[in-house]
Design a protein that fits this description.
Layout: H1 17-34, H2 36-67, E1 90-92, E2 99-112, H3 122-133, H4 137-144, E3 149-153, H5 158-165, E4 172-181, H6 189-192, H7 206-213, E5 220-222, H8 227-243, E6 248-255, E7 261-267, H9 284-287, H10 303-312, E8 321-323, E9 346-348, H11 349-354, H12 358-368, H13 370-380, H14 404-411, H15 420-431, H16 457-473, E10 487-496, E11 502-513, E12 520-527, H17 544-558, H18 570-578
Parallel strand pairs: 1-5
Antiparallel strand pairs: 1-2, 2-3, 2-4, 6-7, 6-12, 8-9, 10-11, 11-12
């Protein structure tokens, strides 16, 4: 058995005071820890520490706000404009070298009326801010009264920000936001549209709205636009408005084989850099895209479809003759008339288009028939809404009743309002061998091919020949350009008034170049151009045709169209068939 040895042994005479002291200290510590007064004091110390920390933070922040009140950042709404990353891609023309749209960081100033602030004196604020915003105090007052968050300035410089800070209006806040910038200003504005404020669909239009709604996140997008061609188109149309005292104009240049939009213009124009929520209503007329949103009776240019339809349906040959002195008065108070009465009574089908005879086209429409006319025009796409990468597309104005009188009117360009871009793409099918195309703003593959046909290649050949004769010997003479064998047709239409009847004119020229193998379609229209007594008239012969010729002369070299020496040999076969 092992011997027991105590660990601690107290022997008589030993000093055990230290044991008593330790015991008393432990009891004291336990008492202090459990004493409510002691606990409360400890908690007060902790609370005091936190109070001091928060007080220091609040004091520093309050001092900073007092010195720099404009540095308070707020987010009035969830917005792409306030995102950290670049919200929308850069946009270039087809070459990838010419920048059309980009994005950069800028500063926005706004008045924010918060509930924690004292009563905000908007009259005083308007007076204080107006000198720095270069704005009438009364107009600014109306804006400041419109809500709790009122944007007062965009794209402000550091100096402007400093001035506004010193205005004494503490409710002004500044926000760093992304801003869309259009370096070419008005150039191609009706294609690009605009995107002000927060890149939402309510404050955007054109291709910009397409990007936003489809959430396209590419770094860069190359459109089909040729910037040089676009520049020539806009400049010449602008000069034409001034020269012919027209109210407006529009034009389109389209690739005849793949539908790429090379240029598209609508005048008067606008600068997308200056459009904001306050200027939208003031710029509505300028922002209206006549080439896409408008619907117009374009007049005699529609005769192209009447002739092509009759040839395709084998109802006529180009050599067939028609009586252009015939009185056609069914449903009319008087006989249908031509712009100029023909010197000869009978014209063949080709001459009907060259001389632009309404009486002849009305007779051809009867040979084709009402249902066939509707079907053929429907196949061209003229009776439906066009879909491209823009949401602001207009709709055609269809007749309320499609009867024989309507059929006749449509055959020579009245009674049916068409969207210009749809019209251009339909004309492409008449001259490109008969292939239907869909217009686009996206570059297509070089080998792009459409197989949908509207008319046969033979009919397309015949139409090119007749349209060349219109430019050589008819109303399109002033559109001819040496070396490009321009083909086309003019149209002069009375404009329907909203109250009924007609008021003013719309003149147009639609054509293609080079004529023997068309690569590009062009449409030019002038709204209510004026003639000049003793010098020129107001028909398309005098204005739309020469304007189109001037555009082709400048644009064709930019599009690398080689000079053409003569029409192809098949044209001689068409001539032989007529004779």
């Amino acid at each position: 058995m092992s011997e027991f040895k105590p660990q601690n042994r107290i022997v008589v005479g030993d000093d055990i005071q230290h044991l008593l002291i330790n015991n008393l200290e432990n009891k004291k510590t336990a008492y202090l820890k459990n004493n409510p007064i002691t606990i409360a004091r400890e908690r007060l110390k902790i609370a005091l520490y936190f109070f001091i920390v928060f007080f220091v933070i609040f004091s520093v922040r309050n001092t900073f706000i007092s010195v720099f009140p404009g540095d308070v950042i707020s987010e009035p709404q969830h917005s792409l404009a306030l995102s950290v990353k670049k919200p929308l891609p850069d946009i270039y023309d087809r070459t990838g070298k010419n920048l059309l749209v980009t994005t950069f960081k800028t500063t926005r100033a706004a008045v924010v009326k918060r509930s924690s602030f004292n009563e905000f004196d908007i009259h005083k604020a308007a007076d204080q801010l107006s000198p720095y915003l270069n704005e009438d105090p009364q107009e600014l007052l109306e804006r400041l009264s419109s809500g709790k968050y009122v944007e007062i300035a965009n794209d402000i410089s550091e100096k402007q920000q400093y001035d506004i800070l010193n205005s004494g209006v503490a409710e002004v806040e500044f926000h760093k936001v992304w801003r869309r910038v259009y370096p070419s200003k008005t150039l191609a504005a009706h294609i690009l549209g605009y995107s002000n404020r927060d890149f939402d669909q309510k404050s955007s239009s054109g291709f910009e709205r397409w990007l936003y709604k489809n959430q396209i996140k590419n770094d860069q997008i190359n459109l089909t636009i040729n910037l040089n061609a676009q520049n020539h188109l806009e400049n010449i149309l602008e000069s034409a408005i001034e020269e012919y005292d027209a109210e407006a104009s529009f034009g389109v240049i389209l690739n005849a084989n793949n539908g790429e939009i090379i240029a598209l213009a609508s005048l008067p124009n606008f600068d997308p850099n200056t459009v904001n929520q306050y200027s939208q209503s003031k710029t509505a007329n300028q922002r209206f895209n006549r080439a896409l949103q408008g619907s117009y009776e374009l007049g005699s240019v529609m005769k192209i479809f009447t002739l092509a339809m009759a040839l395709e349906e084998e109802k006529i040959n180009l050599s067939d003759e028609f009586d252009v002195w015939k009185c056609m008065n069914k449903g009319r108070k008087k006989c249908l008339s031509d712009y100029r009465k023909s010197k000869v009574q009978f014209l063949n089908a080709a001459q009907c288009l060259i001389n632009s005879s309404n009486i002849c086209m009305a007779q051809i429409s009867h040979l084709v028939g009402l249902e066939t006319q509707k079907r053929f025009l429907s196949e061209t796409g003229l009776l439906d809404e066009q879909f491209i990468e823009l949401y602001e597309m207009g709709k055609p104005s269809l007749p309320e009743r499609w009867n024989e009188l309507t059929m006749e009117q449509i055959s020579f360009g009245q009674g049916l309002g068409v969207v210009p871009l749809s019209f251009v793409s339909a004309v492409a099918a008449i001259v490109n061998g008969g292939y239907l195309i869909e217009p686009t703003l996206y570059l297509r593959d070089k080998n792009y091919k459409t197989n949908a046909k509207l008319i046969s290649s033979e009919v397309s050949n015949s139409m090119r020949f007749v349209m060349r004769e219109v430019v050589k010997n008819g109303s399109g003479k002033k559109a001819d350009v040496d070396g490009y064998n321009v083909i086309g047709k003019t149209g002069t239409a009375d404009k329907p008034c909203l109250t009924g009847g007609y008021c003013g004119r719309m003149t147009s020229f639609v054509g293609a170049f080079p004529g023997n193998n068309p690569e590009y379609i062009i449409l030019v229209s002038l709204d209510n151009p004026k003639g000049e007594k003793g010098i020129r008239g107001s028909s398309a012969y005098w204005n739309a045709a020469p304007v189109a010729g001037e555009i082709i002369k400048l644009v064709a070299p930019q599009l690398n169209i080689p000079i053409q020496n003569s029409f192809d040999a098949f044209q001689e076969h068409v001539r032989a068939d007529i004779q």
